[in-house]
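Input/output pair, single chain:
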Amino acid sequence: MYLSIFLHPRCPSVLSSTHARRTFDRALRTLPPSLHFRIWTQYLLWAEHKGDETMVRVYRRYLAVDPSLTERFTNLLLSSTHGEPRPLEAAKLLLSLARKAARGEYTSPEGKSPYQLLEDWIEVVEKYPEEVGLDVEETVTSNAAFAKEELELEAFTKNQESSKPDPASVTGQLIRIAGPPVAVDPDGKLLPTYNEEEDPLSPNRLNIEHIIQKDGLEVYKDQAGRLWTGLATYWIKRGEFDRAKRTFEEGMKMVLTIRDFTQIYDAYAEFDESLIGSIMEAIEGGDEEDEEELAELEKELDVRMKDMEALADRRPFLHNDVLLRRNPHDVQEWEKRVALWGDDDEQVGSLPFSLFQCEPCISYIHCFRRLKRTRQRLRPLTHEKQRQTCIGYMPTLQGSMRREASLVRRKLILTAHVKFLRRPRRLTLGQWKILLKYGASGRRWSSGMSMSKISS
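Output:
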């Protein structure tokens, strides 16, 4: 009853500030721990009403006892109604919650999954890029340091595995009887080591690229599109457009689903459009007397326009790349790649050997050479989908196995021969083997084989 007086709107400032804080502290020291929840309920409400540094310090004390209100505390840190926002501290708390939830050490009171907590962290990073993350130079330096640490750890692990322990017990293993002190919890379990990225009191900013790669892309591979676009948005908000473009390009080369590719491509195209629009506005509102600046803007506009047109032209190829990365043995997608190149003989000439390295085509050739004319003997085709692909891809499997195998072989020889006539120095090792086996003149394979059959 007495503590509720401090929350009354007409309570004088002499009682509602320092006297109230000392009274709450005295109550926590006096009462047993079983009754502390009654004090903390009023204490936290009073701290939220005061805001600023008072709220932060009171909540830090409470979270040391009960971390279940960490999500509420992060919302208060980002709210402007309770004082100046503290995005760095909020970002580190959210990152810590996301990692603990991924390890199964934390359950969100609001029912959020570990990925949803990480997405909340990404939203904070996108909204406050300058306050939370490092710039480009600091990021490159930090990435190099992390890479060096990983190499050293890998080398140390290999040395530990290669070295044999000295027999010091019945089982042949050493017994640890001394060593440095190790932090444990009241149950005797080892506590996690100190991590500066999760310490809200540390003033050092975060390496956003490393965190998204380690805690995002390596864990939530089905959400790659959102993670890549979040990283690119972070660089856009910092004004690092070249780094953002590089991030978009790398994301499109790494994703394995059409959904993720579409998400990254749409964000990339929207970024190009907004950038071109801002440059055009700068040209229209620029000073006509400063001709050098206008010339630079027009030159940059031309470059951005060409990049945007090239991106639109590359979309079918990028779409096809995603499908081939997901299933490099899909013959139909290889056929689509040939159709996309069209009349480009140089690009098409390099595709046959890539095409016939995929598993179904290798299985076809082995089947044609070794097996009989029955479907039950197609043993190199281990999967049912490959078997169905083989059945649908070839016109027949009974009367034309040897003839089709010979046709495939002769097409490969013809490709090598044509490429030899055009640019003999650019032949691959496989094409040279074909020419050495059948002859560069093609007499051993041209007899009885008309161009109409080969082209068909």
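The two ends are 94 Å apart (CA to CA). The chain is about 65% helix and 0% strand.
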